[in-house]
Amino acid sequence: MKQSLLFLILSLFVFSLQSQDFSKIAVVDYNAILKEYYKAKDSQKQMEDLASNYQKERNERDAGLKSLIESINALQKDLQDPALSDAKKKEKESQLKAKGEEGQVKQREMMAFAQTASKILDDKRQRLTQELTEDINKVLSQVAKNKYNMVFVKPQVPTPGSLIFSEGMDDVTQQVLGILNKDAPASSKKEEKK
What we know:
Layout: H1 2-19, E1 25-28, H2 30-36, H3 38-79, H4 86-144, E2 150-153, E3 170-171, H5 173-181, H6 186-193
Parallel strand pairs: 1-2, 1-3
Helix pairs in contact: 2-5, 3-4, 4-5
């Protein structure tokens, strides 16, 4: 039953393609747009800056934890000294216990920081990607309206069922980029010319 339904759907699709005017089909290179669209470049820079700031903070936290571990190791070494008086030994053990607890707290804080930073980065990446996709699709629809029946995306890596050959089809990538970048700030336009 499923196979016959699938065959019927494919047959209808092929029939509709055969009845279509192939001059009304275009292709677009989404990857090229994402490389050249000034807002995509800005988004990439925002993500890199945010990730860099998180990495800097993580490195500072790592340095603090490393320093704490070094002091714990020094206390453990001091406790091995047979000449240590009982009073000093108890003092060092108390310090060691406090440092151990502090280390556990710092490790939990680092794990929480890493999870929070990862979530913030993922959320921002998704939001920026959604905004870019909406911008691109809006302009793509504008370019295609009343001119093309279908627009296929050129895949970066062909997968089964993806468009591999597009000879004779219009490529609307540069048109879309032209519209998207027309309002680019002057600094972005200078970068494009380099």
